Amino acid sequence: MAFSSVLAMSDPLLRELDHYVVLEPGARERILSAAETLVWLAEQLAQLEEPPADLADMADAGARAARLLETACELELAPGLTIQWFAVRLEPPGIS
Questions:
Q1: CB 41 within 8 A of CB 69
Q2: Which of 9, 56, 91, 94 has a 20 to 30 A CA-CA distance from 47?
Q3: CA–CA gap between residue 24 and residue 78 (Å, rounded)
């Protein structure tokens, strides 16, 4: 059984952003679009033997990824192996 835990995202306004910095152990940080971040999270979740308990009732890895993107910023895939994602703004507010 895989060990996993989730750290909650603190500011709901961050969910409105379109880009995320993703951090994986042993890899350089990357900036992904929201859509790319969903794919990345779904791939990470698909590798778990069992999803986190609070996501277990969701239909698939895509639905779980969407829920994580809305509610968390960290997922422990195994003891000592954690991935993180943080919403970032690439342009100052009010500029389109």
A1: yes
A2: 9
A3: 13
pTM > 0.85: yes or no? no
Output the pLDDT for position 91: 72
Q: Which residues of 74-86 are buried (b: 16+ CB within 10 A; e: fewer)?
A: bbbbeeeebbbbe
In a domain, 96, yes or no: no
Mean of the pLDDT values across residues 26-47?
Answer: 95
CATH number, residue 53: 3.90.940.40
pLDDT at 20 over 80: yes
Separation of CA 33 from chain center: 12
Query: What's the rounded mean pLDDT across residues 25-32?
Result: 95
Give the domain range for residue 83: 5-87
CB 5 within 8 A of CB 77: no
The pLDDT of residue 14 is above 90? no
Phi, psi for residue 65 in degrees, rounded to 5:
-65, -45
Number of domains in the chain: 1
